[in-house]
Amino acid sequence: MPKTVVILGPTASGKTRLAVQVAQRLHGEIISVDSRQVYRDMDIGTGKDLDEYRVGNQSIPYHLINIVDAGAEYNLYQFQQDFNTVYHQILERGRTPILCGGTGLYLEAVLKGHQFTAIPVNDDLRAELQKHPDDELHDRFRQIPSAYTVLADTSTRKRLIRAIEIATYLTENPSVELPGPVSLPDAVIFGIDLPVEIRRQRITERLQQRLQNGMIEEVQRLLESGIPAEKLIFYGLEYKFITQYLNGNLDYPTMTARLETAIHQFAKRQMTFFRKMERDGFVIHWLDGQQPLTHLVDLTINELQAL
C-alpha cells in the first residue's frame, strides 16, 4: 500500500466526500491542499464543509484548515513548510496522509518539492511589473532564462509576475542555496472527472445554496471585522464579487451572474492545470464523478491495494 494518497478535482466535484471515506477505510488523515481554506472565518465561500469530515460517530482528522486569520498574508512557501510539518507528523503516527484539494499550484509544489517557493517576494519589482501588459511580461520572462524556466507556470498574469520575480532573483543570486522541501514521488493520485454540463450544474446549484445559507452575511462580517475590501477582493471569486455587491458596485443579479461565470471559468482552469500535470509526468487515475460515492471509494481502495 502506498504511503501517500492524493485526491484532486475541480470545485464541486465531491473530492472531500471521497477523501473522507477513503481516510476512514485506510485509517488516514486528510491534508487540505486549498489556498483559501487556510483562513479562519472564511467558511462558506471556501467550501470547507467541515461536517463532511465525519463518518458515523467517527471524526476524520484534517489539517491546514483554519490555520491563519482572514486578511493575513499567506503564500505558497508557507504552505509548503506547514505541509512538511503535518505530513511527517502523520507518518510518525503510522497513519496514511491523504492530500485533498483543487489548488493545482499547491499540489504540484508539494508533489515535486519545488525549492523555488522559498524565493522572497519583491514588492518593488511587482509594482513595476504591474505597469506592463501581458505580452511585454512574457517577453521579459523569456529574456531571463534560469533553472526555473522549464518549471514556470505563466498561465495567469499573477503567476507570470511571480515567474519573473523568481527568475530575476536567481539571476541576481546565482550561488544561492535554497532549502529542499519534501517531495512525494511515490504518491498515488486520483482525480474526479465530470462531464462539463454536470460540473456546471453542480456549481450553479451549490452557489445558490451558499447564497441562501449565509455566504453574503459571512462576507459582511469579514468587512465589519476590519478586513479591507481590497483584501477580500484579492481572495477572488465569492469574496470579490460579494464585496463589490456589498459596497454598492454591483447589483444582486449582476453579482450572481458574474460570480457564477467566474466559478465556471475557475473550474475549467483547474482541469487545465491537472491536464498540464499529466503532461509533465504525473499519473492521475481518473474516476467518473457521476458514479455513487460507495463505488468510487471501492475503486480507489482496490486500485491502492493492487499497487
From TrEMBL:
GO biological process, alphabetically ordered: tRNA modification
Keyword tRNA processing among record annotations: yes
Record flagged with keyword Magnesium: yes
Region (Interaction with substrate tRNA): 34-37
Keywords per UniProt: ATP-binding, Magnesium, Nucleotide-binding, Transferase, tRNA processing
Signal peptide start and end residues: none
Catalytic activity of the protein: adenosine(37) in tRNA + dimethylallyl diphosphate = N(6)-dimethylallyladenosine(37) in tRNA + diphosphate
Residues that, per the record, bind substrate: 11-16
Residues annotated as site: Interaction with substrate tRNA: 103, 126
Positions with a binding annotation for ATP: 9-16
One Pfam family recorded for the sequence: IPPT
Gene3D superfamilies, sorted: Crystal structure of tRNA isopentenylpyrophosphate transferase (bh2366) domain (1.10.287.890), P-loop containing nucleotide triphosphate hydrolases (3.40.50.300)
Reported cofactor(s): Mg(2+)
EC number: 2.5.1.75
Membrane-spanning ranges: none
Quaternary structure annotation from Swiss-Prot or TrEMBL: Monomer.
Similarity section: Belongs to the IPP transferase family.
Biological function: Catalyzes the transfer of a dimethylallyl group onto the adenine at position 37 in tRNAs that read codons beginning with uridine, leading to the formation of N6-(dimethylallyl)adenosine (i(6)A).
Protein name, UniProt field: tRNA dimethylallyltransferase
Biological source species: Larkinella terrae
